[in-house]
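Forum > Structural Biology > Help requests

Title: Can anyone predict the 3D structure of Protein GrpE?

Hi all, first post here. I have the sequence for Protein GrpE but no way to get a structure on my laptop. I'd be grateful if someone could post the structure tokens.
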Amino acid sequence: MKFNDMLKKKKKENMDTPENISEPTPENLTEEQQLKDQQAETVETEEIPGPTAEDKLKDELSQANDKYLRLYAEFDNFRRRTQKERAEARETEGKELIIALLPVLDDFERAQRAMETAVDVAPVKEGVTLIQNKLKNILTQKGLAEMGSIGSPFDADLHEAITNIPAPTDDLKGKVIDEMEKGYTLKDRVIRFAKVIVGA
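Reply #1:
Sure, ran it for you. Structure tokens for Protein GrpE below:
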């Protein structure tokens, strides 16, 4: 009896050893593998969250700010460049006219030297007349024109009345009788009003 008890005890111990613990069978393996595969598939099929509407708006705002800053910088550069160009143009705006008038200045200097040794007045007068004509031609080429005022009706847009005098004839009433200072236009714009005497 003791021997049987011992055998039973021995069998029981043998059953509890790790060798006897159920090892995974191919069936068990496939089930476990299937479970693992399903878990992996569910992980793969879970959608990775894309950018939210807020993220999209932030991105658009960032792009708009970047465009704005670039545009502002370009406009600022353009403004500075045009200011510089205007300043340079103002400094040299009369350059062409001055260059054109330099020969007239040279002629006046020659005439002055000639007057110092001149005995006769006629050649000096002729020289001054030539210089005046040269000056008028240069100014005419640049767009300057004299106003013809004498005999024309008084026009406040063109004339500045110095005084009124009784008209010598009835047809000169309200018209320019004499001119104290000529008026000039530059490319059809009045740059100096003619100072005139008007018949009353």
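Residues 82 and 88 are 10 Å apart (CA to CA). The mean pLDDT is 80.
Shout if anything looks off.
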